[in-house]
Amino acid sequence: MSTPLAERIRPKTLDDMVGQEHLLGPGGILRRIARGSTIPNMIFYGPSGVGKTTAARIIAGAAGKTLYKLNGTTASTGDIKALINDLDSFAGVGGVVLYLDEIQYLNKKQQQTLLEFIENGSITLIASTTENPYFYIYNAILSRSTVFEFKSVSPQEVLRGLKRVVDVLREDGPVEIEEGVLEHLSYACGGDVRKSINALELAYLGAVPQEGVRRLTMDDALALGQRSAMRYDKDGDQHYDLLSALQKSIRGSDENAALHYLARLLEAGDLLSPCRRLLVIASEDVGLAWPMAVVITKACVDSALQLGLPEARIPLAEAAVLLATAPKSNSAYLAIHEAMADVQAGRTGDIPRQLQNKHYDGADAKVKGQFYRYPHDFPGHWVEQQYLPDALKDRVYYHFGDNKTEQAAQEYRRRQRGQTEESPAPAAKGAARSQP
Asked: Dihedrals φ, ψ of 228, to 5°?
């Protein structure tokens, strides 16, 4: 078996493919496109091992045009120019189909080189990428292409593909498979069909023939699939998807989902990212509903960083469960968001005179004096005076949440504002009266 098994059993038709029913199933848009006489420019986006390359090859091969294949990881500007030069030759009559794998690795200039020929129809582009195309692909190419999202393949569909693989293996000799081996590999691959096929191939190659029969055991399947369900790239979409899922699960008060996504991050060896995200969640999503959450989360994060993996999982799990089950409020987050929006839009103004850090006025001041009123000198430690600039004096950023903590603060505010200010309260002994 010199040729990799995944290559030997690569589907030749769309009917042979597993997964992507939303695109390739009966009535699916890609299936209908493949049957037509005209192929549009397309970009296939999704994780590795889910059929992007296979689908692109099948559709491009049926186009009836000269087919070129380039890989973004190895293609040079010279390769692209050689392709363009062929457009004027006999091979380019009627246009060509370019299958470009991993297009995200082409730089902007290389992508721009193709643009003119994509636009006039000389090149029909079918590209695949594992990264978000809206971040990595030149906008002008995106505007002339349709993006199709490929998704992780379900274990049931992977199992169907593995059974077909077993049929191919049996062409090379007798094979016995312990119960549960295929089912385990179909789950352990994390939706990556190629990874599951590779694991099955390794189990096959590692099985010593006994009386001419190769026996695939559950022990080998467990060893090969131990970490294969992990999809993770600290600089890729999966990294940010996991962090997003962690935060949204905690925000939605689902501690079980939160623990699941935390476990995936930690299993990938990423300790710092969940630590930082949990600290954000404590302030953004729990916030003033329970201000102590950020204190406890900080203690858990500090413990995790001091312990390191694998023990770090324990305090981080404590923080995740605590935040998921805590009351929620994003009032502080919304308040600073609105305040930042005003500042960024230039809505600021001069700081009121009574708040300025100076005790004298220039000669040009019409009314001299600080006029600052020291709140601790008044009942309730509050006195009416303007703090915001004139242009924003009636602006309200913070709105009290409906949780117990913020409602108690609002009630304190009402009582505080209800105090009269007819006479200053006596200063506490030794209290400083001057402003800072």
From this structure: -75, -15
Longest dimension (CA), the chain: 107
CA atoms within 13 A on the CB side of 276: 8
Looking at residue 48, its amino acid is S
Using the Cα atoms of residue 138, residue 143, residue 145 and residue 147 in order, give the sign of their dihedral. positive
Task: Note the helical H segments in 36-153.
Answer: 52-61, 77-86, 108-119, 133-136, 139-143
Query: Which residue, among 429, 413, 430, 417, has the nearest Cα to 378 in the 3D structure?
Result: 417
194 SS3 class: helix
For 246, the enclosing helix (H) or strand (E) is helix 237-251
Structure confidence by residue, pLDDT tens digits, 127-171: 999 888 888 888 889 988 999 999 888 888 888 888 888 888 888
52: Cβ contacts below 8 Å, ≥ 6 apart? 44, 45, 46, 128, 150
Phi, psi of 381, rounded to the nearest 5 degrees: 55, 40
Can you tell me the distance from the alpha carbon of 18 to that of 130, in angstroms, rounded to the nearest whole number? Answer: 18
Burial class for 113, CB neighbours closer than 10 Å (0-12, 13-18, 19+): middle
Q: What is the pTM of this model?
A: 0.58
- Is the pLDDT score of 226 beyond 70? no
What whole-number distance in Å separates Cα of residue 45 and Cα of residue 150? Answer: 6
Helix 313-325 and helix 272-281: axis angle, to 10°?
Answer: 20
Helix (H) or strand (E) holding 102: none
* Torsion sign (Cα): 253, 242, 287, 309: positive
Q: The tokens 């006195």 sit on which residue?
A: 383
- The CA distance from 41 to 126, in Å, is 6
